[in-house]
Predict the 3D structure of the following.
Amino acid sequence: MEEIEHIGSTAVPGLAAKPVIDIMVGVRSLEDTPALVAHLGTIGCEYVPELEQQMPFRRYFRKLSGERRTHQIHLVERSNAAFWDRHVLFRDYLRAHPEVAEAYARLKYEASERFREDRVAYTNAKTDFIAEVVRLAEKEQD
């Protein structure tokens, strides 16, 4: 493993979030996945290979407590800068700009009410906001 980051809404203090910890793990190569599947299995993480159809550059693991997810691990090659940087920039911008984090919380709440049974539509409802925040974060870096 090259790098580990706490991402997602629980990584932003005060941001409304489901009680699920998202962890992004950067590795040199996804070819190491079989060894990591075995290792992560020893701590109760389940590998979900069918999600690779949506994101072939990511390996997804989840940890459950009963029927509820408590943790999600997103394993990506650290060289995949676009995926990695987007998540870190978004998190860091929300941490530094509480008013933007509040706007994101409102958007998430409204989308969850509107798309209660449609996870894809909920995710899509946040896409433009996230892209704009990442753009602002990149501009701030320059």
Observations:
- The chain has a mean pLDDT of 93.
